[in-house]
Design brief:
The chain is mainly beta and 280 residues long. Helix content is 5%, strand content 46%.
Length: 280
């Protein structure tokens, strides 16, 4: 059987596109900064007044920590009338900070929520966005399930929550209104990332999502999702970038530009919590 040149190139294009979801792209670590011991479980990252905001995850105090690019702890912001049941990520828009208390390691939590915090009013809680998964019927404690989420980012009209799917190693995208209330969630898009997603960020000017994740072997990754359009989710693609670091638990990311990112890692083994600048 013979094949035309045109058909050959069409076949190559299809193969490239089918492989695109698992494409690994080289990158480098440009900077490493040791962070204060107080934020040993840094699990979210956001810009604030020229510095960074972060928080500890499950069971930590309900505090947002402000630190500099040099790793200096500047200020603590205690969130009154709040509990850190399992804070996993935070995001910010022009008005509020949103803290995602949606960690659900064993699939048995029924009271998941996103705190709406007003930084202009001494970081007081402005409301709660309570969520549940529409398809979840089983709340028995277990290791493999579809109902954990550790990554959230704000887009202009909503919040996007990314699942940490311990059963299939996919991630599901849930869109949530930026209004207090009770919402039953059903995902709008699933991506075959073959990893567990732990943090997210979105840059509206670049139309770029960035995620961080790890796999079964403990390898750490950045995923970039360019040309994001919530009305064309069927076109959403990603590129996978391996982070060349050992003994890390990276759970937060902040976009600098399309090629540069900040990420933070929890303390792990003998390594302290760290801030990394990564170029892809």
């Amino acid at each position: 059987m013979t094949i035309s040149i045109k058909s050959f190139y069409c076949l190559i294009t299809i193969l490239i596109l089918s492989f695109y979801h698992n494409l690994l792209v080289a990158q480098t670590i440009e900077k490493v900064v040791e962070l204060p011991a107080e934020i040993h479980e840094t699990s979210g990252l956001e810009y604030f007044e020229g510095n960074f905001l972060t928080h500890n995850d499950r069971g930590g105090k309900p505090i947002l920590y402000l630190f500099s690019e040099a790793g200096e702890l500047i200020e603590n912001h205690l969130i009154l009338n709040a509990e850190n049941k399992d804070w996993e990520d935070l995001t910010k828009d022009e008005n509020l900070i949103y803290i995602s208390d949606t960690g659900n390691n064993f699939g048995n939590r029924k009271k998941l929520k996103i705190l709406m915090v007003d930084p202009d009013k001494n970081f007081e809680v402005a409301g709660e966005i309570k969520v549940n998964y529409k398809n979840q019927k089983n709340f028995k404690k277990r290791k493999k399930h579809d109902y954990d989420a550790e990554a959230i980012a704000a887009v202009p009209k909503s919040l996007v929550l990314f699942s940490k799917n311990r059963k299939t190693f996919t991630t599901e995208l849930y869109f949530i209104p930026k209004k207090k209330g009770n919402y039953s969630l059903k995902f709008k898009k699933s991506l075959p990332v073959n990893s567990l997603i732990t943090g997210a960020d979105y840059n509206e000017r670049l139309k770029l999502f960035a995620l961080v994740a790890y796999n079964k072997e403990g390898d750490q990754f950045i995923y970039t999702l360019p040309n994001f359009n919530s009305k064309k989710l069927e076109e959403l693609q990603f590129v996978k970038h391996k982070i060349p670091v050992d003994l890390a638990q990276i759970e937060a990311i902040k976009i600098i530009d399309k090629n540069n990112f900040w990420v933070t890692s929890e303390a792990k083994g003998k390594n302290p919590p760290r801030l990394f600048k990564i170029k892809i």
